[in-house]
UniProtKB/TrEMBL annotation:
Sites where the protein binds phosphoenolpyruvate: R130, E234, R235, K257, R288
Organism of origin: Micromonospora nigra
Residue ranges of the region described as Disordered: 1-21
Names of required cofactors: Mn(2+); Co(2+); Cd(2+)
BP terms from Gene Ontology: amino acid biosynthetic process; aromatic amino acid family biosynthetic process; chorismate biosynthetic process
Keyword Electron transport: no
Residues that coordinate or bind Mn(2+): C91, H320, E362, D392
Protein name: Phospho-2-dehydro-3-deoxyheptonate aldolase
């Protein structure tokens, strides 16, 4: 596969359309990036950001096209009901925590969760870490409680509460790339051959840099070399926005978070835009409804998308719809709500005869005290003890494995209902 844009060193960095398709891709990329883009930083000196983008266009990829293609195959199985997808890791990776001990702990907890899930069902498992690039965060407010520009992730600014530290700095994209390469090295070394990496497709100045032109599919597309799998977040899924248009151009498997405001009609629009060639597993719909809403909001979405004939992966994120503020001010989640949202998700799929294809969770292998509940009964007064997240609260190692046992039970129940094989229903309409 050839890098895109093609920029041979001996032409002074001029972009060359070596292949006829590159002109089309160039135009489509420029059109995508010209659309309104939510949640982007305002770089104080735009030329500096441009220079970093050009530098990163020459940088090494983090992942290989063959691994990404293998993940696409594995996700096709998950979409057909023949595999289960476990995705998880930090809410926000940080440069400071990009250490062997932290990364190994997170890989280890994912492996333990995967073991629990596999042993309960014999269903092949696909594991995707939120790792090696999960450095950009969407935020609900532009300023924090003290009136400073909000922390947007280590790839953009620093969490330190000073005006200088919070000023977006494009050089951080270079540091993010170096950190991601280091993390990927550890994933290869300690994660086995079957852990893939993912992050939120958020910061477009970063995402646009390490790309290949990919002519292998039904239409020429771009493959990101920055992660195997990318997802669009709840705050950047505007139909006319840059993130959806950029994801449409990618040949990587992609996800989109869908919160409780998403209607069945909107979900079908996402599916048609992001899976135009009806490729099983190309798109993962990540529902994050909250435990109180999932049983009501998800069924019409699953029904209408299934009727469209597209084979998506249904994945439950039981974290982001269940965030609450503890009495002592800590942003937290309760283990019981997390379990209950997954239970609701399984109930919906059991009712409709569809495959509950996976979970997407914020977990760490470290012994943090960020989420309430679980077997050791973390209470509000325990939260300050080891509350270390740079953004959202994560399940700790013990809570994560306990969650895996709950999910394994639900999955085993679903399997014993005879829903082991591919969905036998006729595929309707366009696909
Ligand atoms: C996240 O995954 O960390 C996140 C911000 O999720 P969402 O877009 O669903 O709110
Ligand atoms: Mn989060």
């Amino acid at each position: 596969m050839r890098r895109f844009p093609h920029r041979p060193a001996d032409t002074g960095g001029q972009i060359h359309d070596r292949h006829p398709e590159d002109g089309v891709l160039n135009r489509r990329l420029a059109e995508a990036l010209a659309r309104p883009a939510a949640q982007q930083p305002c770089w104080p000196v735009p030329e500096r950001a441009r220079a970093v983008v050009e530098q990163l266009q020459q940088a090494d990829p983090i992942v290989t096209p063959s691994d990404t293609a293998r993940l696409s195959d594995r996700l096709a199985s998950a979409a057909r009901g023949e595999a289960f997808l476990l995705q998880g890791g930090d809410c926000a990776e940080t440069f400071a925590d990009n250490t062997v001990s932290h990364l190994r702990a997170n890989l280890r907890v994912l492996a333990r969760m995967a073991d629990v899930l596999t042993h309960a069902t014999d269903l092949p498992l696909v594991t995707i870490a939120r790792m090696a690039g999960q450095y950009a965060k969407p935020r609900s407010n532009a300023v924090d409680a003290s009136g400073l520009p909000v922390y947007r992730g280590d790839i953009i600014n620093s969490a330190e509460p000073t005006p200088a530290a919070r000023t977006p700095d494009p050089q951080r994209m270079l540091r993010a790339h170096v950190n991601a390469a280091g993390a990927m090295e550890l994933v290869r070394r300690f994660g086995g051959s079957e852990v893939y990496v993912s992050h939120e497709l958020l910061l477009l100045d970063y995402e646009r840099t390490v790309l290949w032109a990919d002519d292998s599919g039904p239409e020429a597309r771009l493959m990101s070399g920055l992660a195997h799998f990318l997802w669009i977040g709840e705050r950047t899924r505007q139909l006319d926005g840059a993130h959806i248009a950029f994801a449409e151009l990618l040949s990587n498997p992609v996800g989109i978070k869908i919160g409780p405001s998403v209607t069945a009609e909107l979900a079908v629009e996402y599916v048609e835009r992001l899976d135009p060639h009806c490729t099983p597993g190309r798109l993962t719909l990540v529902s994050r409804m909250g435990n109180g809403l999932v049983r009501d909001v998800l069924p019409p979405i699953v029904e209408k998308v299934s009727a469209s004939g597209h084979q998506v992966i249904w994945q439950c994120d039981p974290m982001h719809g269940n965030t609450l503020q503890a009495g002592n001010g800590f942003k937290t989640r309760h283990f019981d709500d997390v379990v209950d949202e997954i239970a609701g998700f399984f109930e919906v799929h059991r009712e409709l005869g569809t495959h509950p294809g996976g979970i997407h969770v914020e977990v760490t292998g470290e012994d943090v005290t960020e989420c309430l509940g679980g077997a050791s009964g973390i209470g509000e007064r325990d939260l300050p003890t080891r509350y270390r997240t740079a953004c959202d609260p994560r399940l700790n190692a013990e809570q994560s494995v306990e969650l895996a046992y709950f999910v394994a039970e639900m999955l085993a129940g679903w399997r014993s209902d005879g829903r082991a094989g591919p969905d036998g229903r006729d595929l309707a309409d366009s696909c």
